[in-house]
């Protein structure tokens, strides 16, 4: 797929400086630009590369003025990084655009099929499923009974959505994600075994939620596990039953959140974090990678460590952590000197 500088400038509402008819068919870093590629310059430390890049087109800020000759055609916009991101989104929409129903696939006769939809081969869509406009369900996905998928939502290959779950508009569920599997509920029995507690609830994803590959979100024991609008979950995350995650919170890979914990809005949680159950995490909380959260957390706290405590205190304490062998040696030497004088 090729685009001219003039076409790209039209998409970005930018201005072409150079050849408006020059074409690009791929993307590149500015330092690795080749003929036929598109790149961008937003970080000033990369400015020297604009004079050596072989990229055919470079997106730059309106304020950029070259101080020596360049060979690349410029597209000037208000914000080069934002413009390049917008172009990536536009390209991704075109690349992933599919329509129609491939065979073999199974769609229950109770399902009303919208005019614009894509259903890939070997997809299963169960009884009483509600499909929004422009939904895309890629091959080998499973959509259980009574599921609702909102407008423009995408389920990538191998995504699994169990019965009764509700998925909002403009959501993305990546390959291998499982939405609505049973929560981890077992009660001990008198003979030392365990009996399963039925998980009768569901999972609700509000609008603009992204779920990473291999991430699992368990259905509630009763009620709903709720992921609020704008939440972004990375790959291989475990969200347990009856958890609630506030809007616009982001969580990095391999984090686990135990049952019934409530996480606030606009939180940023690093990778491999463990959060215990039945806790309340406030708004705007930041948790550094590999931390363990075992207590309630107030708004705006920044935590690190396992068990976690204040980020600033953790950094101060780390100075002592890493020097413990030296400190122990010094204490032993001092004890010997004291004992020698007694």
Can you tell me the number of structural domains? Answer: 2
CATH architecture of the largest domain: 3 Solenoid
Strand order in the sheet with the most strands = 8-10-13-16-19-24-27-30-33-36-38-39
Q: Radius of gyration over alpha carbons?
A: 27 Å
Spans of at least 5 consecutive residues with low confidence: none
In words, what does this structure look like?
Keywords: Acyltransferase, Lipid A biosynthesis, Lipid biosynthesis, Lipid metabolism, Repeat, Transferase. The strands form six sheets. A twelve-stranded mixed sheet has the order 8-10-13-16-19-24-27-30-33-36-38-39. Strands 9-11-14-17-20-25-28-31-34-37 form a ten-stranded parallel sheet, with no helix packed on it. An eight-stranded parallel sheet has the order 12-15-18-23-26-29-32-35, with no helix packed on it. It contains four helices and 39 strands. Helix content is 15%, strand content 29%. The protein has two domains: 93 residues, Udp-n-acetylmuramoylalanyl-d-glutamate--2,6- Diaminopimelate Ligase, Chain: A, domain 1 (3-Layer(aba) Sandwich); 216 residues, UDP N-Acetylglucosamine Acyltransferase, domain 1 (3 Solenoid), CATH 2.160.10. The protein has 342 residues and is of the alpha/beta class.
């Amino acid at each position: 797929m090729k685009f001219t500088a003039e076409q790209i400038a039209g998409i970005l509402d930018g201005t072409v400086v150079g050849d408006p008819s020059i074409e690009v068919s791929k993307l590149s870093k500015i330092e690795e630009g080749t003929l036929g590629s598109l790149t961008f310059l937003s970080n000033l430390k990369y400015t020297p590369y604009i004079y050596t890049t072989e990229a055919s087109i470079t997106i730059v800020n309106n304020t950029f003025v070259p101080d020596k000759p360049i060979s690349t055609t410029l597209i000037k916009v208000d914000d080069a990084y934002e413009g390049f991101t917008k172009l990536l989104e536009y390209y991704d929409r075109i690349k992933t655009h599919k329509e129609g129903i491939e065979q073999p696939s199974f769609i229950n006769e109770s399902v009303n099929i919208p005019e614009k939809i894509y259903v890939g081969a070997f997809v299963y869509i169960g009884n009483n499923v509600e499909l929004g406009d422009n939904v895309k369900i890629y091959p080998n996905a499973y959509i259980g009974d009574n599921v609702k998928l909102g407008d423009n939502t995408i389920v990538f290959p191998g995504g699994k959505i169990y019965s009764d779950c509700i998925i909002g508009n403009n959501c993305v569920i990546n390959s291998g994600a499982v939405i609505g599997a049973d929560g981890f509920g077992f009660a001990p029995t008198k003979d030392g075994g365990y009996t399963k507690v039925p998980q009768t609830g569901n999972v609700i994803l509000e609008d603009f939620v992204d779920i990473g590959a291999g991430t699992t979100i368990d259905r509630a024991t009763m009620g709903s596990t709720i992921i609020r609008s704008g939440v972004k979950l990375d790959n291989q995350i475990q969200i347990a039953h009856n958890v609630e995650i506030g809007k616009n919170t982001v969580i990095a890979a391999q984090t686990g959140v135990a049952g019934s914990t409530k996480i606030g809005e606009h939180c940023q949680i690093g990778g491999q974090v463990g959060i215990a159950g039945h806790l309340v995490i406030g708004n705007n909380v930041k948790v550094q990678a590999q931390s363990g959260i075992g207590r309630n957390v107030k708004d705006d706290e920044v935590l690190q460590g396992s068990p976690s405590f204040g980020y600033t205190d953790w950094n101060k304490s780390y100075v002592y952590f890493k020097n413990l062998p030296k400190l122990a040696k010094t204490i032993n030497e001092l004890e010997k000197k004291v004992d020698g004088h007694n």
